């Protein structure tokens, strides 16, 4: 059984159909990249998977299945249990998502306590352990910091640590490296790949950088104007696609950390 399946999914804001007829199937442990220009519907697709469409957005046709079960009829309570434990999301800039008046540790403890009946002390220790697992040395110091005291790369690692606390089966990442310099970008990308290798996490990563996508993904999806214009396994997409739009994107790939991956 596929881990995640989108079957002919159409997503609308009000009466406007924004994303049309999307089909996608992902196995456990697979990394899938969605690329496409700004406004093509990438964020809309992954927000639909997490049941978090903004501003009256709704799946108006088709179905989204997670482990064979539809996500479209989940109640608020069911979503509360699912988000963060089975499916997690990493945002473009985790720092922007964090309350600037709250220390990382307080936010992390609060996050853990919404998912588990656990003491503050145990939640704190769990947070420290997760930070250190995500290669953030001296987790205790980070817990005592405010997000603005950390670099963009560190904030993103904190976001990943939070998202990975319960080892979700699926991680959704919306342009997780766009706000970072190229060297840090490459480190974060490698970290995502390690998560897949160590925990078998499936990842959907949205990026406008086809270089990043080609480097890390098993499966590539190209979106344009709300439709999936082209998709396939990495090798096919990089070397054998005859879609003119995919070919054009490939020709325009910038380098990542000084290295060209395609
Ligand atoms: N909350 C919203 N209400 C109405 N339209 C929206 C909303 N969010 C996004 N859109 C529209 O949906 C389209 C796709 O947006 P989005 O999914 O954010 O694209 P991408 O992530 O690829 O840049 C855009 O045309 C955008 O204007
Ligand atoms: Mg977007």
Number of strands: 10
Question: Which CATH architecture of the largest domain is right?
Answer: 3-Layer(aba) Sandwich
Largest sheet: 6 strands, mixed
**CATH level 1 name of the largest domain:** Alpha Beta
Distance between the termini: 32 Å
Proportion of beta-strand residues:
25-35%
Low-confidence segments: none
Structural domains: how many? 2
Ligand types: adenosine-5'-diphosphate, magnesium ion
The outline comes out as globular
CATH superfamily of the largest domain: P-loop containing nucleotide triphosphate hydrolases
Considering DSSP H and I runs of 4 or more, what fraction of the residues is helical? 25-40%
| Rg for CA atoms | 18 Å
Provide the residue-averaged pLDDT.
91
Structural class: alpha/beta
Question: Key features?
Answer:
single chain, alpha/beta, Rossmann fold, six-stranded mixed beta sheet, globular, binds adenosine-5'-diphosphate, binds magnesium ion
Question: Care to describe what's here?
Answer:
The chain is α/β, with parallel strands linked by helices and 262 residues long. The protein has 2 domains: 26-54 and 74-86 and 168-262, 3-Layer(aba) Sandwich (Rossmann fold), CATH 3.40.50.300; 94-167, no CATH class. It is 39% helix and 25% strand. The chain has helices at residues 42-49, 76-82, 94-97, 104-115, 120-133, 139-143, 152-164, 182-199, 210-216, 234-240, 244-251; strands spanning 4-13, 16-26, 31-35, 57-66, 69-70, 87-90, 170-174, 202-207, 219-224, 227-233. Strand 4 (57-66) and strand 5 (69-70) form a beta hairpin. Helix 4 packs across helix 5 and helix 5 (120-133) crosses helix 7 (152-164). Magnesium ion binds at residues 42-43.
